[in-house]
Structure formats: C-alpha cells, structure tokens
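Obj: model holo form, ligand = coenzyme A.
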Amino acid sequence: MTEAWIIDGVRSPRGRGKPGVGSLSEIHPQRVMAQVLNGLKDKVGFDPADVEDVVAGNGSGTGDHAHDIARMSVLDAGWPITTPGVTLHRFCGSGQQAVSFAAMGIMAGHQNLVIGGGVESMSRYSPDHTDGFTANNQHLFEQYPLIPQGISADLIATLEDFSREDVDAYAVRSQERTERSIEEGRFADSLVPIYHDDGKLALDRDEHPRPGTTMESMEGLKPSFEKMGTTKFEGQARTFDDICKDIYPEIDKVSHVHHAGNSSGVVDGAGAILLSSPDFAKAHGLKARARIHMTATAGAEPVIMLTAPGPAAEICLNKAGMTKDDIDLFEINEAFAAVVLRFQRDIGVEDDKINVSGGAIALGHPIGATGPMLIQTVLSELERQDKSTALIAMCTGGGMGTATIIERI
Ligand SMILES: CC(C)(COP(=O)(O)OP(=O)(O)OC[C@H]1O[C@@H](n2cnc3c(N)ncnc32)[C@H](O)[C@@H]1OP(=O)(O)O)[C@@H](O)C(=O)NCCC(=O)NCCS
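Output (holo structure tokens):
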C-alpha cells in the first residue's frame, strides 16, 4: 500500500451564515468552492488536468447545494472538463470523510492526485427544518426518534453533569484562543479571499469570532434549545425533552445549557486539501507537509447523536497501534461545548493539547467544509510548534464520528 501525502490546503474565510448579513451569503456555494479550488492551484502550482477527482463534502444536498456540487465547482473554476468531482454526505463529517476517501483512493493505488474538501452555505438553510433527520419516515422515527442537535448537546451536558459555567468557560477559552490565533496571523497562510462576480472583495477574514467574550458578557444569553425541547409541536406525541427522558430514564429533566455563545457558529465557507501519492509528488516537484496515517469512523447511540468522536478516535488509535499519548495535538470539532468536554473525558486529553488554535464556537462550523479546515488548522499548528502527530475528530448527525490521524513529513 502506498502513502497518501498532504501537499497543502486552503480555505475560504468563514462568513456569518445569515442571508443579507454574512459577507459570503450572497455568493453561490459553487462559486465559493471554485475560488477555493483555484486558490489551492495558485498556492501549490499543480496542473488541474492532473487531478483525478475532487471529492467534496456537503451537509445540505438541496437547493443551491443540490446534486454534485464538487463537479459543478470544478467547472465553475474553469478547470479542464476532464477533471471530475464527486459529492458525499456524512452530515457534519462530510468534509473530513471527503479527505479520507481521497486518501484511500491514493493508498489503494487507484489514484495519484486527488482533492478532498467541502463546502457549505448555511445562509441558504431554511429556517424551518420540518423534515428532520428521519425525513418524515415514521417507521424509522419510531425506532430512533432523532432530536435536533442542540438538544442532543444539552442531553450530553445533563448526563455528564456539565454546568452552564463549565460550557461557558469552554466557550470563553475557544474565543480567547481564536483571538490569539488571528492576532498572530496563524490562519493567514491557508486563507483564500473570496470575491463577488464583479471582482469586488467579499471577505478576507473570519467574520464570526467575538473577541473579548467573557463569562460575564455571556451571562444574559438565554438557552437556545429550551423552548424547542419543551414544546409539543403539531403532530408530535412527545416533546423532544420527553424523548430524551424516555431513552435516558436516569434523568428527570434536560438541562438546557447551550446558547449562541457556546454552540458552533452558523457560517458559510469552503475548504480543500491536495493529496498525492509519493511517486507523483516526487515526479512533479510537489513538497509534502504531512501524511494521512489512519482514518476511522464510528457509530454510537443516534438520539444523543454527538458522542461518537471518542469512539472514532479510539478505533483510529487502535488501528494505528497508537495511544492518546502518541498524539501531540487533538482537533475536535466544537459543534457544541459539551461535545468537546465529553471527548476530553472519554479519551483523557489535557487542555493544552486540544483545540489550541480556537474552534467552531468562535469561528463557526460550515458543516461539510469544516473537516478540511480542521485538518489544515492543526497541521499549521503542528508546524508552528514543531510537533509531529495530530488526531482530528468530529461528531456527525445520525450518531457517527469521523477521525483522522496525520503525521508531519
Ligand atoms: C445556538 C444558535 C441557535 C444561536 O443562533 P442565533 O441566535 O442566530 O445566534 P447569533 O450568532 O445570531 O447570536 C445571537 C445573539 O447572541 C449574542 N451572542 C452570541 N455570541 C455571543 C458571545 N460570545 N458573547 C456575548 N453575546 C453573544 C449576541 O447578542 C447575538 O446577537 P447579535 O448578533 O445581534 O449581536 C445557533 O448558533 C446554532 O444553531 N448553532 C449550532 C449549529 C449546529 O447545530 N451545527 C451543527 C452542529 S453538530
């Protein structure tokens, strides 16, 4: 088996995911992804005709995201018609999965140069998600009454006994670390500015962080998912909180601790990573920054939904013959504060090894695009600290987790 080398990666800035407010909200996601692809091409200097596939994650799959956004972005970028693209869906883990599949094609010896990435315009999400995870399939809902993710996060906090203070303290840390990373220019190397069609700059910096966030500044924020959890919506036999209590009878109420300040931000963006076989890289003068050492996926209880980063990390470590002590840095998606706190408890990771550059609470989580962004962030941080190995993990809808171990070359 050959290795899959990470040559380089880029990403768009993350724009606030509100129509008419966010700086990327008016730009079609195909256009955003196309500009990221060209940013990668310009940074590395490869020939797009050599790219055997662009694998992209997307967590929506409808409207402007519909069908195969990877191929459409390739065409929009003006790349040769011979360069294909494929889009996949593993909820929030879509982009990380895209990088894994891109690496697997190379490791299997079937491909030489593949891009793994992802794109999401959360500005385009409809405000009323009436279809839910089970897509109106009553048969499935009766077996797994999947609940909105914010309530799943509150359920984790309830079961783990994370207080509002615990999750807020984590969120303050995310903002502080993000602020420091931005001030020190740690993201600058991977950022591709995004332009409107008329050539005017749309965005060249992350738009979601709130520097100066403190425990006090978040004190007045109301829980975002309490009303949703306690309301019996039309056609529902039980409230979402009732479902939690039925499945986890050890709790007598759901403690709603998540709010706008300690949940991942709703944002727009795209990211892409160029992967190569060692032979192709050497023959074409491409310098590698890291290799994909191992990838894994895991499934866990789907109603609580967001607990699988720990199991995915464990599978990944076991398959690699490693322990958590072999990992220098952990990058765990901050879908909600309780998700990272639970991961730390599951795996036993110290504060100074996890999400050291900040994360999605401050920066935002553009669903299908987040995976490649996390990989780039932690790779840059490994280089900055001159360390070797990182583990990236994410929770996803449907109760799954994705994990990747990368190693600098
Ligand atoms: C939690 C959530 C519902 C909040 O949405 P929202 O109310 O639209 O959030 P906003 O960013 O507009 O913030 C609302 C208000 O909170 C306040 N606020 C947000 N962050 C703050 C902070 N760090 N400090 C102080 N106040 C803050 C602000 O007053 C803000 O209003 P403003 O934008 O007018 O200043 C949304 O962020 C969410 O759904 N996140 C999770 C997304 C998700 O599920 N992803 C998949 C995960 S697996």
